[in-house]
Amino acid sequence: xxxxxxxxxxxxxxxxxxxxxxxxxxxLLGLLPGIEVVGAAxxxxxxxxxxxxxxxxxxxxDLRMPRCDGVEATRRIRAEHPGTQVVVLTTFADDESLFPAxxxxxxxxxxxxxxxxxxxxxxxxxLSGDAGLSPGIQRRLLERLAEAEPRPAxxxxxxxxxTARETEVLLLIAEGLSNPEIARxxxxxxxxxxxxxxNLFTKTGLKDRAQAVRYxxxxxxxxxPAG
Length: 227
Description:
By secondary structure, this protein is an alpha/beta fold. It is built from 10 helices and 6 strands, in the order E-H-E-H-E-H-E-H-E-H-E-H-H-H-H-H. It has helices at residues 19-30, 44-54, 70-80, 95-104, 116-127, 135-148, 164-174, 179-186, 190-204, 209-218; strands spanning 10-15, 35-41, 58-61, 85-90, 108-111, 132-133. Strands 2-1-3-4-5-6 form a 6-stranded parallel beta sheet, with helices on both faces. Helix 1 (19-30) links the parallel strand 1 and strand 2. Helix 8 crosses helix 9 (190-204). The mean pLDDT is 83.
C-alpha cells in the first residue's frame, strides 16, 4: 500500500495484555506506511492513561485484558477523549465480543488474522469518518439488526426528504462500501459522496455509519441477507 504524501501518519496506541503479541503488533505497525506508533499499553487502564497523555488518533484495542477490559476502556476513551477513535483488534469475532465493543464506541473491528493493509485501511477509514469493519462484520451487524427488529413494510418513497441519490448512497453505506468505493460505483468524486452523506445525516439526524445501517433496515430500504 502506498501512502498519500500529503497525509500525516496516524498516531496509534496499541493495547494488548500479551507481551509477545503487543510487541509483534508494534513491530508490524512500524513497517506500515501512514502509521506512527506513539505508545503501547498492557491493559485497559494503561490505554486510557496513554490516551489522556498522548492524544493519539487511534487506539488498536484488544478486548480481553486484566484490570480494565477493552470494552470498558473503549467506553471511557470515547467519553473522555472523543478525538481518539478505537479500532478493536482481537482474536474473537463472536457476537458477545463484537456488539458490546461497537456499542461502547469502537468504529472499527478486526480480528488478529488481519494483514497490514487491512489494519492501515481500518485506521484511516475511522479517521475519515468511515467504519473500519470487514465485510463479514458488516454483514453480521445487519443480520443482528434483522434478528432484533420486526421486518418493516416496504416504503412508498425515500424517507425524511432524502433525494434519490442520497438514498442510493445510504444503501451503499448499508452494503459496507467506503466513500471511495461508493464514488467509484456512482462515477462521482469522493467529495461529492461526502456531500451526499452530510446531507442525508443532517436530514435523518444520523451520527455515523453504524446508525445509517440501522436506519436503512428500519425504514425497509434493505433486507437482511438470506441464510
